[in-house]
Amino acid sequence: MAIRSFFLFILFFSSSLSPVFSLYEDQVGLMDWHQQYIGKVKQAVFSSQRAGRKRVVVSTEENVIASLDLRHGEIFWRHLLGADDVIDGIDIGLGKYVITLSSGGSILRSWNLPDGQMVWESSLQGPKHSKSFLLVPTNLKFDKDNVLVVFSNGRLHAISCIDGEVLWKKDFEAESFEVQQVIQPPGSDLIYVVGFAASYQFEMYQINAKNGELLKHESASFSSGFSGEVSLVSTETVVALDSTGSILLTISFQDGKISSQQTPISNLVEDSLGPAVIIPSSVSGIFAIKTDAVTVFIRVIGEGKLEVVEKTTHEIAVSDALSISEDQQAFALIQHASSEIHLTVKLAHDWDGNLLKESVKMDRQRGLVHKVFINNYIRTDRSYGFRVLIVMEDHSLLLLQQGEIVWSREDGLASIIDVTTSELPVERNGVSVAKVEHNLFEWLKGHMLKLKGTLMLASPEDMAAIQSMRLKSSEKSKMTRDHNGFRKLLIVLTRAGKLFALHTGDGRIVWSHLLRSLHKSEACQSPIGLNLYQWQVPHHHAMDENPSVLVVSRCGPSSDTPGVLSFVDTYTGKELSSLSLDHAVVQVIPLPYTDSTEQRLHLLINADKHAHLYPKTSEALSIFKREFLNIYWYSVEDQNGIIKGHALKCKCTGEVADEFCFDTRDLWSVVFPSESEKIVATVTRKLNEVVHTQAKVVADQDVMYKYISRNLLFVATVAPKGSGEIGSVTPEESWLVAYLIDTVTGRILHRVTHHGSQGPVHAVFSENWVVYHYFNLRAHRYEMSVIEIYDQSRADNIDVWKLVLGKHNLTSPISLFSRPEVITKSQSYFFTHSLKAIAVTSTAKGITSKQLLLGTIGDQVLALDKRFLDPRRTVNPTQAEKEEGIIPLTDSLPIIPQSYVTHALRVEGLRGIITVPAKLESTTLVFAHGVDLFFTQLAPSRTYDSLTEDFSYALLLITIVALVAAIFVTWRLSERKELQEKWR
Amino acid sequence: MEKGKGIMGSGRRWAVDFSDNSTAPSSRDIPDPPGFARASVDQDDSTVSRQKKDAESNWKTQKAWEVAQAPFKNLLMMGFMMWMAGNTVHLFSIGITFSALWQPISALQGVGKVFEPYKDNKVDLLGPKLLFIALNLGGLALGVWKLNTLGLLPTHASDWVSSLPPAQEVEYSGGGIPL
């Protein structure tokens, strides 16, 4: 024990000497990888530049605008707008500016197309909220200046394309007017604004595009009302649906006169199909309506006459129109057929003729085509060629050209909902000899090169070879488990309902699976994935059983819709089974018990507070029955400000007898006064966290016993006034209260109020401490506080002999009803950055010291030693405290530039940081996700238990060989000398 | 003598034996001269040899005591070295402490060997041995004390609880904000 403490001391000593964990330049990419994504594409505009590299500008649901290389799909440049700066429209103006309209139409920006630099930004205000439209007319000129037409917030603006100046504006203040379309017929100086008023009146405004003067205002009322969107079929005709969704209204406003025609859908399509919706498209003369089962394409033949041109039951996607010449418009149509998709490009006025018809094999795991964008190019024989950009159900982006997928981007990974990890398969014996030899040769070659590098004999080519060898080390991307536990699978669930398995070695996708249970179906209208849980982690049967994960999803956005469970094998990505539940899933509680097949027991709580046990086996039930009285659960109702504790009561007293369903009863509740407190953050310890010891040795060999409990909840509340943005309240009327609540008994163990402080609160709980980050209004700075909890009732265990003989009850099971006596220590520090996420490193045994991982506002991850957040820090620590490693107290936490885990990279749109212990105690794996993904290995106390990657084995080997040779030679020499001495 | 014989056997005709056989009992082929009684000479010598032996045992006792006291110097030197090494754990102090522990232990193991040359029926070695052991134990104690001042002895509660795993909790509770 003493030796252990001695080694720990040495360890600390060596780490305290060099607290900086920076990397060398050539170490970048050895253990880390970084992937850039953009998210699901909402809108794409092809750049029509003749010269230079072909590119496409896209806006996405992650609020990214990006310019992509059309040849390879790489990102030229990319900008992530803020989370509340949703992009409404993009377009290219003058061939060299990318125009974006965002934030509900209130911000218009222009970006330089080649390099993505912002040219100008203008803010557009208006009288009321409305839909927003961005139009870039090609031939509308105003003093040699191209004009942008923007309708937003109930106001029509004409804006200069060069500098963003508002040339004129026109308000549409009519109370109930809802704009539906803004039309600028090419070649005219008119702008039409059409919309509905009071949901049954059609309004048309004709405006002079030169000066914003209102030329005409017509309206017509339709008793049946309107529903959904309108489709523009020509510059002066729109099609709308009535409120029942069964009658089509063709409204034309030629020359400012409104004329209309009503056509019941049943006249066009024989069998009644139920309510229809219009698929928005801009192809002139043709529009599409979609009912539950059928998609119908309808052509408008002058004077409001309608004609069905095609009816299909396949899933279909249509692109916008692309004008290929003066009077010709082409559009793309994609239909699904089992494992293929059929792409057809047609001319708008000629439905039956196809410009192009291609079939492309499509991976079923990509799901349906959601969006199509078409672009043309001129082939060498001067005919038109077409390429289409398609967005799939899994949010991936593909470019099709000449019947092939030219490139694809897995942009679903930009919107990760939840992450878990899985081990890789165990390596099996039977590696062929040839492979070993090859490996040996490679190994030797590699090490000789490395040796050359160490001895500075390597040429630049050799250095490049060394670097590429280090980066492409086959060792790190193998598909088997390794000794150190660095190789794992990251299982991620994306918003599209697709599961990906990423290899931690190089970040490649090992498998991906679009969950069947997350497909739209009759029973499940809009399924959304919620969470991932480790369902089965085989340790005893690791050779012959595969681990699996549980995906919990729900059929709709509200919490009382029924849930769906899917079980997915993590080695193969096969969906083992899926369960459609007859109850909702409000909470999922993984229990700390496993059955004989190592499936973890899970308790699912439904909206009526019934607990359902999974897996539904008798074995699980018997295990559960044994622990029945010791299982509790709590619910945080953050809207009402109530935390409730519940215990299980008895079997459900429902209409159907279900052994696996249990009633619960309320045990306790903590009610926060709604006029003074509002819950903003709750955090608990991670279920799988390992704590090495319960004692903390402080200076002078004293012991403090940590209060380590899995059932502690940290709750932060703020004054309701102060729950808004920072700076919206004065320090006097804002406060933040931090609670530590025992979730079994409901006892509040600790409560502390920070006056003059405000959220947002980011907190992390580990072992016996919690660290939280908030804003201090008085100091105008961010602050971080730490609370450590110690068990005072154990503090009298100081008799050495009792401890030597083991006559103590420190490790015997304890009940939380035994009223632990705790003391807390806390301290606060200023911190420069605002945070997006916070996490803590976790290691296999919990021995290695901890680091906090802070996701900063600059989308980087900063590692901060936990020693900086130690409530025992004082301004002048004593000698003993210094020896213990206590850092003198400072008012703010230092930011060491070298301790950025992400070094020079940025994880755009950072949302979460996940840490996973490796098998090697010193090392932890860190995965940060947002729009980008970043993975690295961290050793908070340096790798004290292994040799570093760049350790030269060859040098060691050569040294040993040289030493042995030297010994041999000197032995022979001394022998000879001795002999000569004797002869003398 | 034997050698001489051997040489004679190999061809030498004669040899003169210069060895003095006066004290040795006659066990050879040459008889004692007439009138010479060997036993009487022995009796005469006995007083001389006793004196000689007494002196020798005195010397041995003295030497034994000297040897027994030798660790004292060692002890002083060790003490000085320890004082020099200071109370922090580093390579030097660890080395000194371990040598301070090792020396007395190895000395104690070889107590018999150390006093082997002075072993005699008449010499009482118990006293020196006890002193030797006591001094070495003192050295050992010094080493242990040094070990303790370095904080490497498990004499505190912290040494025994530092790796105790946290206690198991009987109850389990889960939950949180609804999904």
Automatic annotation (TrEMBL), chain A:
Signal peptide stretch: 1-22
Membrane topology listed for this record: Single-pass type I membrane protein
Biological process according to GO: protein folding in endoplasmic reticulum
Subcellular location per the Swiss-Prot or TrEMBL entry: Endoplasmic reticulum membrane
Domain ER membrane protein complex subunit 1 C-terminal: 766-983
Domain EMC1 first beta-propeller: 23-411
InterPro entries in UniProt: Beta-prop_EMC1_1st, EMC1, EMC1_C, Quinoprotein_ADH-like_sf, WD40/YVTN_repeat-like_dom_sf
Keyword annotations: Endoplasmic reticulum, Glycoprotein, Membrane, Signal, Transmembrane, Transmembrane helix
Transmembrane segments annotated in the record for this chain: 951-974
Principal place of residence: endoplasmic reticulum
GO CC, one annotated term: EMC complex
Quaternary data: Component of the ER membrane protein complex (EMC).
Protein name, entry field: ER membrane protein complex subunit 1
Source species of the chain: Gossypium mustelinum
TrEMBL record, chain B:
Annotated family: Belongs to the EMC4 family.
Localization of this protein: Endoplasmic reticulum membrane
Primary subcellular site in the record, as a coarse category: endoplasmic reticulum
Record has Cytoplasm as a keyword: no
Highest taxon of source: Eukaryota
Keyword annotations from UniProtKB, A to Z: Endoplasmic reticulum, Membrane, Transmembrane, Transmembrane helix
Membrane topology: Multi-pass membrane protein
InterPro entries given in the database record: TMEM85/Emc4 (IPR009445)
Cellular component, GO, one term: endoplasmic reticulum membrane
Membrane spanning residue stretches: 80-105, 125-145
Keyword Transmembrane helix in record: yes
Chain segments carrying region Disordered: 1-55
The protein's name: ER membrane protein complex subunit 4
